[in-house]
């Protein structure tokens, strides 16, 4: 299957990177300033990193399947399980945390913003690479 990939606009590329940086940055700054034990901060930071990896892997796998690039059912399933698991772990952690409701909401929303940004940035990187491949060698 061959199709033309449109080059993402500069505005969408910038918004994607901004979403990723704001989501990751606010989540991380919130953790840095939080009055919680270091092991709890590590738990939330690990979930953020795991969530970003899982979301980007899932997005890539879905896109590969759409483009008829072989993706094993095991890997595809693990991607879905990983995204669900990191969201479940964050939910359980925040549910049981001794944080105010506004703090819990802050972490949940910055986490989701970071995941969205990670997926959008990965999509843009892939679209740009495919667009450049279709356009031929770069012109100077």
Count helical runs: 4
Tell me what portion of residues adopts beta-strand conformation.
under 5%
- What is the total tally of β strands? 0
Shape: flat
Rg (CA only):
18 Å
Kindly name the structural category.
mainly alpha
The major pleated sheet works out as: none
Write down the secondary-structure element order: HHHH
Please explain how this structure is put together.
There is one protein chain. This protein is mainly α and 140 residues long. It has one domain (10-134). It has four helices and no strands. It has helices at 10-33, 38-66, 73-96, 101-135. Helix 1 packs antiparallel against helix 4, helix 2 (38-66) packs antiparallel against helix 3 and helix 2 runs parallel beside helix 4. The longest helix is centred in the last third of the chain and has 35 residues, at 101-135. It is flat. The relative contact order is 0.20.
Features:
mainly alpha, 4 helices, 140 residues, 0% strand
Topology of this structure?
Elements: H1 10-33, H2 38-66, H3 73-96, H4 101-135
Helix pairs in contact: 1-2, 1-4, 2-3, 2-4
Concise synopsis of the structure shown:
With 140 residues, this protein is mainly α. It is built from four helices and no strands.
């Amino acid at each position: 299957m061959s199709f033309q990939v449109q080059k993402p606009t500069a505005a969408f590329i910038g918004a994607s990177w901004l979403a990723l940086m704001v989501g990751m940055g606010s989540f991380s700054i919130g953790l840095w300033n939080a009055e919680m034990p270091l092991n709890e901060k590590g738990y939330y930071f690990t979930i953020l990193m795991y969530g970003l990896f899982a979301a980007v892997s899932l997005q890539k796998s879905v896109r590969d399947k759409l483009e008829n690039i072989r993706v094993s059912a095991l890997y595809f399933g693990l991607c879905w399980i990983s995204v669900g698991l990191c969201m479940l772990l964050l939910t359980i952690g925040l549910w049981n945390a001794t944080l105010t409701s506004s703090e819990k909401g802050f972490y949940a929303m910055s986490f989701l913003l970071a995941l969205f940004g990670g997926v959008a940035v990965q999509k843009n990187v892939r679209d740009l690479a495919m667009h450049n491949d279709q356009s031929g060698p770069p012109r100077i």
